[in-house]
Design a protein that fits this description.
Elements: H1 3-17, E1 20-21, H2 31-36, H3 54-66, E2 70-74, H4 77-92, E3 96-98, H5 104-108, H6 112-115, E4 120-122, H7 133-137, E5 145-149, H8 162-174, E6 178-183, H9 190-193, H10 197-201, E7 206-210, E8 221-225, H11 227-239, H12 248-260, H13 265-284, E9 292-294, E10 302-307, H14 311-325, E11 327-328, E12 334-335, E13 342-347, H15 357-371
Parallel strand pairs: 1-11, 3-4, 3-5, 5-6, 6-7
Antiparallel strand pairs: 2-8, 7-8, 9-10, 10-13, 12-13
GO molecular function: L-allo-threonine aldolase activity
Cofactor: pyridoxal 5'-phosphate
Organism: Streptomyces vinaceus
Amino acid sequence: MTGDEDLTKRLVAAGRTARRTLTRSLREATVGELLAGLAAPDPDEPADVYGDGVVTRLEERVAQLLGTEDAAFFPSGTMAQQIALRCWAGRTGNPVVALHPMSHPEMWEGGALSLVSGLRTVHPTKDPRQPTAEEVADLAEPFGTLMLELPLREAGFLLPTWEELEALVGAARERDAVVHFDGARLWEATVHFGRPLEEIAGLADSVYVSFYKSLGGLSGAALAGSSSLVAEARVWRHRYGGQVFRQFPQALSALAGLDRELPRLPSYVAQARRVAAALGGALADGPVPWFRINPQTPHTHQFQLWLPYEADRLTEAGVRTAEETGTVLFHRWSPAAAPGVSMTELTVTAPGLEWTPQDVEEAVGAFTARLHP
């Protein structure tokens, strides 16, 4: 077992036995726990065959929530989004996609947009923030689709303001381009925008949403939009190998997430803001030379923390804190672009709703005591 594998094993073990945590890691769930969450409303309902039955119910539910004509289930968001952008390239006659270089297709899909679909990307900005309408308007070459990741995860789960989002969409329309939202985490954006889901999704020509990133589902995603676009996407889904014979476990877990987690997301966002404020106060009073919470007031229930230490040292201090105190404040840390600086992501879900500012202060004290013995 490598050192990294051992560290992961310790993180998972500490998380499973923790008395206090801000969220449960996706790695901590057992097979039995996941199966227990799949109880069907009607156990005698026939299992789905290539996407009928419970999968159709899920698609109808998503379309209703987002206010679109139709929605299609996909086994992964990567597939859903690549197909959406491919469909729009065919419809607009332009294979160029304007998107942020920190967005998911550029960071985590192995160059599939160009290698699989023959698309090309341009970047309105390289800064770690959402692009501006002016930057979209000033792009030097025509583009067929503007893709906006809402929120932009790698930059700190950042969202534009509602007025900025409207202006971005308007700038794309002025360039005769369509708009696609990477809404993997769109479910929790309603608090920041102060708008319901259907109004947010209504700005775009198509929207992709995830069922596991915020809703706690097993896996899977949906692509929502007009009936004609979704029908075309279903054809490409089959060509990409996404026409899976049985999909009821993913669909049942997604429906459970929509019932259980979606109504609670606003409370998670509110608590994340309280946790971030308490975290900043505790770190300011502690031994760390400097820190950065990004964004200072979280836009969603997730945000970043930056500290001037090596990632392994921070992760080890966090694991030891969890093992010795039963409190998980931080999970794994990653090296940042600057030498000697590391970043971790914090997520607040149901377990984190019980934390008080004093709990945060105590957890920070326990962590820094192991970081600076």
